Amino acid sequence: MSKPTERDIARIRARQAREDFNIFSRLPAVYAASRSQGQKFLQKGGGLSIVEWRTLWDLHEVGPMTIRDLATIQRADHSLLSRALPEMRRKGFVTMRRDVQDGRQTIVEIADAGRAAYERAAPVMAQRRAALRGVFSDEEITAFVGYLDRMEEFLRIPIEEFLEEDPVE
Questions:
Q1: Cβ neighbours of residue 106 under 8 Å, at least 6 residues apart?
Q2: pLDDT at position 13
Q3: What is the average pLDDT score of the chain?
Q4: C-alpha span between 73 and 121 (Å, rounded)
């Protein structure tokens, strides 16, 4: 096949149509759109970052917990939180102390300024969740979460289970 010298709009559209079903390429785009929208909502709700919001929300709902607990709930990298928390402490949003039972662990707790920041952002973020429920029914959200769980399980399978062994010559 010779190399085309002109843009072929029909081929471009056909490729786009196929890529619409490429889940691997869609997930990063959905993630980026979610973060962008979330950041815009949070700007209206007091200017918190996504990490700050998630952390304050979790601490408000659960109470004091370790960084590892937060990372598990948020499905986030432990190091991401470890880097964000000192700034949150500097802002007065959280307090941090060593766990008396396991000195390797740090207990994080919401502080008064964090509670106030949470209270400013919470109504705006509740509107976001309500808007999502206007697009998806509870049953659809449950099904979607099930698909995400299955996708995450699939993505955690070691690649060796999928790769064919090299043929012996």
A1: 66, 67, 85, 96, 97, 98, 99
A2: 95
A3: 93
A4: 19
94: CB partners within 8 A, 6+ apart: 55, 56, 59, 85, 88, 108, 109, 110, 111, 114
- Provide the H-helix boundaries in the chain: 9-19, 23-44, 50-62, 67-74, 78-90, 112-135, 138-155
Query: What Å distances lie between residue 12 and 25, 46, 86, 98, CA to CA?
Result: 16, 42, 47, 56
> For residue 59, which of 112, 100, 101 has the smallest C-alpha distance?
112
Q: Is 70 within 8 Å of 108 (Cβ atoms)?
A: yes
pTM: 0.84
Phi–psi pair at 63, nearest 5 degrees:
100, -170
